[in-house]
């Protein structure tokens, strides 16, 4: 027995999202039913709903920044109880058997983790995301949202927050470290907040100085325009870690030249086409270039606890369900500071 729930879905590629219903499975042994309170709008929702990343499944209910409250639990659930505040991020299952799953790095599951939406459960069922009143998920793939972060500003942490926390933690951002965040958008603004809370000296590298006041308010110590060539001479050899949150084809040799010896440039965004760079840019400073993909369940929980402890959440603009299509256009034109969050209660109106 499935349950029909209200959702916003794209019926076909590039079609506007519209209000509809989707089916949620009956609770299995370890499932929890979550009444969703807020769902963030991630840029990847738009890429997938518009089928810009290759063929996708429709109807599509996007949303992998989900925050809500447990409404029901399956008979074998031990981690959560009705009323608990919980979140769901970018995946809702993984094989649990491969080397990466066993190592607690489910985001790199060798069988392919099950995406929260535009994905397929191992039993063949399509997955539907958070633009919906309810979701059913295995308790092992849900996160606890600590008291001290409200659910609206917590929602974007489930993708944007962990996407930045993971590389900052992995490459040891902290006191004495100089960290640059490239791009001050949905991802970048969380990078600034988290790197600052970790104790690093934080620099924003943005195309222009348009968002300088915001950057400094969010915790950056310095703010430079990459559109100004003098930035690259002034900051040469400065950073221990640079996290690139943009999906542009950056002049990589220029960015690599900003790293100290042994510094690392980490990409969390990717352009449509490959970028070129000179190996000399690595050789001349024993530098590394790396990538990072969201984070594991364990690390996502660690991130939520860290954010609660430091009073961090996303900077958000709350919208109703009927504003999703307009919000998509505004995200594409970078007209949001810094994350749209859908008030799911509006779906019942
Ligand atoms: Zn996302
Ligand atoms: Zn696996």
UniProtKB/TrEMBL annotation:
EC number(s) per entry: 1.1.1.2
Keyword Secreted on entry: no
Entries under Pfam families matching the protein: ADH_N, ADH_zinc_N
PROSITE patterns cross-referenced by the UniProt entry: ADH_ZINC
A molecular function (GO) term: alcohol dehydrogenase (NADP+) activity
InterPro entries referenced in this protein's UniProt entry, alphabetically: ADH-like_C (IPR013149), ADH-like_N (IPR013154), ADH_Zn_CS (IPR002328), CAD-like (IPR047109), ER (IPR020843), GroES-like_sf (IPR011032), NAD(P)-bd_dom_sf (IPR036291)
Entry cofactors: Zn(2+)
Top-level taxonomic group: Bacteria
Enzyme class per UniProt: oxidoreductase
Catalytic activity: a primary alcohol + NADP(+) = an aldehyde + NADPH + H(+)
Domain Enoyl reductase (ER) intervals: 15-342
Keyword vocabulary terms for this entry: Metal-binding, Oxidoreductase, Zinc
Family: Belongs to the zinc-containing alcohol dehydrogenase family.
Protein name according to UniProt: alcohol dehydrogenase (NADP(+))
């Amino acid at each position: 027995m499935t349950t029909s729930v209200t959702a916003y879905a794209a019926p076909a590629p590039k079609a506007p999202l519209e209000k509809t219903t989707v089916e949620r499975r009956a609770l299995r042994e370890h499932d929890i039913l979550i009444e969703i309170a807020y769902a963030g709008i991630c840029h990847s929702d738009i890429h997938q709903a518009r089928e810009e990343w290759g063929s996708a499944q429709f109807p599509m209910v996007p949303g992998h920044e989900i925050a809500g409250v447990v409404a029901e639990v399956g008979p074998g659930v031990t981690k959560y109880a009705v009323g608990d505040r919980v979140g769901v991020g970018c995946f809702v299952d993984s094989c649990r058997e491969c080397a990466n799953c066993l190592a607690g790095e489910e985001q790199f599951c060798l069988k392919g983790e099950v995406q929260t939406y535009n994905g397929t459960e191992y039993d063949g069922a399509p997955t539907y995301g958070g633009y919906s009143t309810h979701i059913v998920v295995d308790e092992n793939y849900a996160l606890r949202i600590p008291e001290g972060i409200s659910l609206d500003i917590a929602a974007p942490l489930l993708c944007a927050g962990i996407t930045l926390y993971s590389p900052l933690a992995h490459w040891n951002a902290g006191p004495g470290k100089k960290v640059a965040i490239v791009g001050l958008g949905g991802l970048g603004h969380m990078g600034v907040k988290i790197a600052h809370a970790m104790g690093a000296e934080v620099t924003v590298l943005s195309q222009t100085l348009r968002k300088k006041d915001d950057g400094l308010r969010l915790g950056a110590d310095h703010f430079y325009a990459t559109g100004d060539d003098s930035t690259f001479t002034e900051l040469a050899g400065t950073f221990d870690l640079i996290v690139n949150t943009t999906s542009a084809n950056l002049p990589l040799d220029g960015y690599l030249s900003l790293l100290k010896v042994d510094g690392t440039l980490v990409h969390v965004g990717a352009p449509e086409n490959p970028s070129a760079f000179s190996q000399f840019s690595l050789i001349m400073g024993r530098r590394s270039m790396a990538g990072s993909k969201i984070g594991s369940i364990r690390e996502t929980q660690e991130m939520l606890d860290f954010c609660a402890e430091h009073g961090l959440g996303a900077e958000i603009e709350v919208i109703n369900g009927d504003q999703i299509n307009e919000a998509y256009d505004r995200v594409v034109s970078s007209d949001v500071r810094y994350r749209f969050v859908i008030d799911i209660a509006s779906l019942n109106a």
